[in-house]
Each structure stands twice: as C-alpha cells, then as structure tokens.
Write a structure and sequence with these properties.
Blueprint: H1 23-27, H2 31-47, H3 51-81
Keywords: Membrane, Transmembrane, Transmembrane helix
C-alpha cells in the first residue's frame, strides 16, 4: 500500500504497533481490580448463600436459551450456505 502513496507513513502514529496481543493494555483492564471484585463476591456469597438460588433461577435458563440460540444459528447457517 505504501508504494501507492509516497507520503504515507510506514507506521502511522494514530495506530499503535501490534508487537504482541496485549488486551489488558488496549482495553485498559486492571486485573488486580477484577480479582479484588471476585474476592468480594465470594465473601458476599459466604455471608448470603441464598443468593446462589437467585443466580441458579436466573442464570440456568439464560444459559440454556443461549445454547439453543447458538445451535439454532449454526444449523440455520449450515442449511443456508451448504444445502
């Protein structure tokens, strides 16, 4: 591409060089904060164990619906493009 545009910089200053995949730097994720959040959630579950019932009642149907939607999408795409 650079031989078409003579003034185009080889490495643009707008985009960072991708020396390696470092998602924590790109997305500004602080893993220490996430670990601290997980520890506080586990401590909260130890003091309030009934919240697990809420997670099971809400989370399990959502997981099942997501799995059904994924399988349906895969099979519909296979049917659309292959058959």
């Amino acid at each position: 591409m650079n031989h078409y545009l003579s003034n185009y910089p080889r490495q643009s200053s707008y985009y960072h060089r991708m020396d390696g995949i470092n998602f924590s730097k790109r997305l500004n994720i602080h893993f220490a904060f996430i670990i601290q959040l997980e520890k506080s959630m586990i401590a909260y579950l130890k003091t309030h164990p009934l919240i697990l019932i809420f997670f099971m009642v809400i989370g399990m149907p959502l997981c099942i619906l997501l799995a059904v939607a994924t399988v349906t999408t895969i099979f519909s795409l296979l049917y659309l493009f292959i058959l």
